[in-house]
Amino acid sequence: MATQTIVLADDDRAIRELLTHHLEREGFTVVGVADGNSALRLARGAADLLVLDVGLPGVDGYDVARTLRREDRSVPIVMVTARCDELDRVVGFELGADDYLCKPFSPRELVVRVKAILRRAGRPVAQAGPLLRFGRLEIDPAAREARVDGTDVKLKPREFALLMELAGNPGVALSRDWLLQRVWGFDFNGDERMIDVHVHRLRAKIEEPWELPPMLRTVHGFGYKFLRP
């Protein structure tokens, strides 16, 4: 079953990272954005669901929802906002929101509502992929763990997401720009060297202490690829 893609639009980076962590743990692919124009662009594409903050810069969440429904886009929308008056909720639903969550809320509650909406929309709920095994290395998408000889090497969420992107495409050279978009999201404004830093950390946690053969190969001037042992 293909993984569903959730577009997460919130201008608070800490909130994006927290919600991304919980959604990815459930097997979803999450693309985070910080403004309304980016949310519109991605929601018009292959998004299976849009988590939409109302108070976005530029085009706000209400205008994003209004535009998508005017264009007859059927992507489900979960609005999240600190505006919790009855009138605000009514406006959100009238503009085509499928659900409306008031901040602060539990990330687990968001996950439950996302799954329920996808089921109602007739879209199969995301399932974590199968175990990936590469010699002594085992990558478990459901548990969000990378294990060597059965021991969890304790990867951070971004490290695990980067490893999954590389190991899920063994032998394929992936550019730094591609990895940034897939792991950090389209709104990331940092340096491409962030990829190099995280690959170094993966090597330090997986290859070096366990004396595994090199799996993360540098493609000079381009990016990285994962090699089967």
Brief descriptors of the model:
single chain; 229 residues; Rossmann fold; Arc Repressor Mutant, subunit A; 5-stranded parallel β-sheet; 12 strands; 38% helix
Q: How much of the sequence is in beta strands?
A: 15-25%
Low-pLDDT runs:
none
Shape label: elongated
In sequence order, what are the helices and strands, one letter per element? EHEHEHEHEHEEEEHEHHEE
What would CATH call the homologous superfamily of the largest domain?
Response regulator
CATH class label of the largest domain: Alpha Beta
Question: How many domain units?
Answer: 2
Mean pLDDT: 87
> In the CATH classification, which architecture of the largest domain applies?
3-Layer(aba) Sandwich
Instruction: Let me know the largest β-sheet.
Output: 5 strands, parallel
Report the end-to-end length measured between terminal Cα atoms: 27 Å
**Total helical segments:** 8
CATH topology of the largest domain: Rossmann fold
Question: C-alpha Rg, in Å?
Answer: 19 Å
Strand order of the largest sheet: 2-1-3-4-5
Describe the structure.
The chain is of the alpha/beta class. The chain has 2 domains: 5-120, Rossmann fold (3-Layer(aba) Sandwich), CATH 3.40.50; 132-226, Winged helix-like DNA-binding domain superfamily/Winged helix DNA-binding domain (Arc Repressor Mutant, subunit A, Orthogonal Bundle), CATH 1.10.10. Helix content is 38%, strand content 21%. The chain has 8 helices and 12 strands. The chain has helices spanning 13-25, 36-43, 61-70, 86-94, 107-120, 157-167, 176-183, 193-207, and strands spanning 5-9, 29-33, 49-53, 77-81, 99-102, 132-134, 137-140, 145-148, 151-152, 174-175, 216-219, 223-226. A 5-stranded parallel sheet has the order 2-1-3-4-5, sandwiched between helices. Strands 6-7-8-9 form a 4-stranded antiparallel sheet, covered by helices on one side. The protein has a 3-stranded antiparallel sheet with strand order 10-12-11. A hairpin with a 4-residue loop joins β7 and β8 (145-148). α2 runs parallel beside α3 (61-70). The longest helix has 15 residues, at 193-207. The chain is elongated and about 60 Å long. The two termini are 27 Å apart.
